Amino acid sequence: MNQRLRVGVVGAGAMGASHVGTLAAGVPAAQVTRVFDLDTARAKDVASAAGGEAAESADALIADPEVDAIVIASPDFTHADLAIAAIEAGKHVMCEKPLAVTADDARRVVDAEVAAGRRFVQVGFNRRFDPGFQDLKSSIIDGSLGEVRVLHGIHRNASNATSTDDAGLVTGSMIHEFDTFRWLLDGEIIGIRVESPVTEGFRDPQVATLWTDGGQMITAEVFVNAGYGYDVRVEVVGTGGSASLEPRTPVIRRISGQGGSAIGSDFVAHFIESYRLELAAWADAALRGDVVGASAWDGYVANLVAGAGVAALGSGARETVDVPERPELYG
Amino acid sequence: MNQRLRVGVVGAGAMGASHVGTLAAGVPAAQVTRVFDLDTARAKDVASAAGGEAAESADALIADPEVDAIVIASPDFTHADLAIAAIEAGKHVMCEKPLAVTADDARRVVDAEVAAGRRFVQVGFNRRFDPGFQDLKSSIIDGSLGEVRVLHGIHRNASNATSTDDAGLVTGSMIHEFDTFRWLLDGEIIGIRVESPVTEGFRDPQVATLWTDGGQMITAEVFVNAGYGYDVRVEVVGTGGSASLEPRTPVIRRISGQGGSAIGSDFVAHFIESYRLELAAWADAALRGDVVGASAWDGYVANLVAGAGVAALGSGARETVDVPERPELYG
Amino acid sequence: MNQRLRVGVVGAGAMGASHVGTLAAGVPAAQVTRVFDLDTARAKDVASAAGGEAAESADALIADPEVDAIVIASPDFTHADLAIAAIEAGKHVMCEKPLAVTADDARRVVDAEVAAGRRFVQVGFNRRFDPGFQDLKSSIIDGSLGEVRVLHGIHRNASNATSTDDAGLVTGSMIHEFDTFRWLLDGEIIGIRVESPVTEGFRDPQVATLWTDGGQMITAEVFVNAGYGYDVRVEVVGTGGSASLEPRTPVIRRISGQGGSAIGSDFVAHFIESYRLELAAWADAALRGDVVGASAWDGYVANLVAGAGVAALGSGARETVDVPERPELYG
Amino acid sequence: MNQRLRVGVVGAGAMGASHVGTLAAGVPAAQVTRVFDLDTARAKDVASAAGGEAAESADALIADPEVDAIVIASPDFTHADLAIAAIEAGKHVMCEKPLAVTADDARRVVDAEVAAGRRFVQVGFNRRFDPGFQDLKSSIIDGSLGEVRVLHGIHRNASNATSTDDAGLVTGSMIHEFDTFRWLLDGEIIGIRVESPVTEGFRDPQVATLWTDGGQMITAEVFVNAGYGYDVRVEVVGTGGSASLEPRTPVIRRISGQGGSAIGSDFVAHFIESYRLELAAWADAALRGDVVGASAWDGYVANLVAGAGVAALGSGARETVDVPERPELYG
């Protein structure tokens, strides 16, 4: 039979447990062998359901000879150090977004890869693997929209337990938009402004304006307590037309004077197929020594933009995003 | 039979001729008796198709005893003086937007009404009469959206022969959004910023950010050479949900691997029913000595916002909109 | 000023009163001068709101010199005799559907026109004037669907106070579909079968299968107590594609895990613009001595199909529709 | 590591190769060990891409100790005998639809299972595993539609290389609808009529009418050369509302006066996720000795309905579907 990538998963919370389940039920190229979580009972449950075992610590998991590659789904502040440890152990990594809490920490991951002379890290910007987002990108690439001038992003949660302060909304939620726009446009964000109609307490929603090195302007609304459901949309507008990602569940109900479709509130369910494709692509690439998807560099730049966004939220002004020279490793 | 409002129309261009046709074919309460245009042959043709006659001049039309009320559809720079002349003649006016090119000129119309001690002027912000926009407003009023936080407006033309310079896009096209937002929210715009991804030549599209006295932020994209068609959309987002005006023609064609509906390029055709309802409401009100729809004050404030918008386009900064105290006449 | 058609309206029920209101508020070419209803107080109210007077009887209304043309909106069983009386008086008629309760009665109207040597009657198949249905028809005419093979019709009411028995559903509701299909396809229905999943009590919904002389098959579901709202859809399927009339109200609400739009229950509101265009086209034509829209012949054939449909509902078999030779008058 | 089901695949055509690829890339519980096809080079290619080997014959594959379970994706006429051979070998089967070409052949499979005293066969009615169809079914089960009265099915291919004669359209394409309706309604089809507007040559499209033991009527249009794309829709109409499966790709393009989304022509791509879920559910069940999805009995009844449908296409009449007593084995 074919070789399978033996995967250790650090973090068995909602995202980590979902990844373990997805690997076990939908990614034949991978096999979950170890799971670590501070909640050891939970780690054991999640691991055994997938045919693996709990690890004693994250370090032990990374060092374990039964682990070829690591999925990092632990709290954000642990990401960078875990990724660096994995790099130093010469093991492939799929690190949940964000790569780090600060750009400086993310830079340390980049530097570790540069020092190692090769790449190991894929950052979990899963939208890059979503068929809808890929179709949207193809509308740009195939030229049918002409020259792209403006993008509009919407990112709403019914409610959000993790993005609960002003900066966290930028670094934890809006960071998806930063990577999405860079990837869709194959360009760099050079300026950002973040504002909110809410001036007291938690500033939610936030409205960002972004500028790219390709001459586009972008508006992005992120509203993590929008109440009605999980809703992610992007419209790309060019001189030749517009393409708009507007997913809709396939069943239309007509009842009591209303016709429409369900809007879920669970982002994991919404993007479940993208997670599977992301993990499958990661495992396939790792087995052949390759890295696909968002790189550590992409993760670092997303953190740079987020840092400028947080500064902008404070200054009320447009902040410049200064992206250093890209190391050759990220060609 | 019932009394009919005898209407004189100044300007027989595309908009004026459309209004004459709409009055003749769809507004029984009105009767077009006089039409004036510098192109006298055109004035005669348009008038006679509606059973009326050409007038010798705008002044003569306003003074004509066969004219009870005036529709102003001549070039923008003539609006204010014509409206003032009509007010002084004690005749009702339906003045196409904008009420004036500058806020100062619009203020003169307001002052003329205040001096006259009564209102005569309806400004042609036709969206207020569009069933879709009214339905959108009802979503706000009925409370189902909770507290409104953000609005997003889209206003695209396939191409535009009249909004052809940076300021003109604001004062001629985006001015519709200014009135729409004020009317939807029953509030005042207190700040505006206007930017464009295009930095050389005609800065189209433009992206505006607006702030209201009700604590909302608004993004508005106006793109007058969007190529694909005429497209006007508004989304209103509150703490309880979102309502989005997204008109669609009723026939879905599925041909050659594509399923969808037609998007027209003619704004008059798109909003034709709103024009009829606007003119009908104006004629009904005029017959009973009343004024409905957007007032001269609304027209003036829209000009104030547009003026600040043009300044913002130059300064690159957020400009404050200073709305003076509202005269009692506008209650 | 232009000449106006002086209209007498027989029947001031929901449909009649709506027509009076539409003529008064939206059809400048017409003027309601007389209204008759057995409920004389209602007739007076409806008439005076439009600037007209109540008539003493239907006969008096038809004979009245202040009446140039007649709208028949009285109970169905009165339609044929009233239409014939109007023809004999040489006055134009807009007769609500159906033209008659039976094909024999409808034939008497046709014969009266033939005897008069000219046409006076338009039958109120309003869908022919609906912009959506016209757009659907244009998809057939322009050839983009290739050769049409199949149509599917849906016609649902939330509840229905008038179509309350098996035959009445066919003759009162489904008759709209019969005319729609003939008009869309510019063809003749040659066979019909009507069945229902409900075998006891009121057989609602009913599912009809129809055959045309153009080689098409049609399915039509009519469900007059469908509960959720008023819903009329038609899909036309050809060898080159499909066109589907699927009207949707323009505002999308996203609230509480559902996204969708309102579905009304009032067929008059749903088709209000088609009624106005129908009455306007009728008045314009009458003023120039012409007749447009569905003819008495079309009304008669619709009754023929309905008669075969009622027979089919009883026989359980496909019934042939035998359309006699068309008199020259109907070209 | 977890046990994996070792799968042998008979038939490496489009469907078989797709299943091999899906198993290899998306079903960790299974492992393709053997592939047989008359085209041995193709079998070898398909097998080796998945890490398996070509088998010498279907019999050898079924007998192979490295094969725990069999996927049958060979030509329809081979299905029944292969399924019986697998049953006799005591191995699980996922047999592509139809289970057999005739009901008699399908009955032999049922009889083989009954003789074996246990079930081995899942029939590849993949729609049962499609999230959209499952959502549609939940609308029926949760009672929100009230009592279901009518269903409407649409099944169109751009073009079809396999359903190329009148009977083949029923037994090869429409058979999907038969299973879908039975499964959605948890009921039995008791009558069927199949007609076509096309009377010469290949009778495509066909329009079926079906009756269920739950008192529902169903219309189903199957058009295997519809030109524009692959389109499968079902509407379920009850006394409380309607639920309609209307999948739409998530990106809306607005270009050149048209707004809409892409319609593919590849049924495998359209339903690819349902195939993966079907195969995964099959493998999981087989590993625990269970059978899920459509049973051999369901496959047999679908063939019975198809047989009645073919008879109806010839007779022009409604044909009764006589379903024998269900063996206890099928609960």
Automatic annotation (TrEMBL), chains A, B, C, D:
Signal peptide positions (record): none
Coiled-coil ranges per UniProt: none
Domain of life: Bacteria
Ranges for domain Gfo/Idh/MocA-like oxidoreductase N-terminal: 5-125
Domain called GFO/IDH/MocA-like oxidoreductase: residue spans: 133-243
Record-linked InterPro entries: Gfo-Idh-MocA_inositol_DH, Gfo/Idh/MocA-like_OxRdtase_N, GFO_IDH_MocA-like_dom, NAD(P)-bd_dom_sf
Protein name as it appears in the record: Gfo/Idh/MocA family oxidoreductase
Organism for this UniProt entry: Aeromicrobium wangtongii
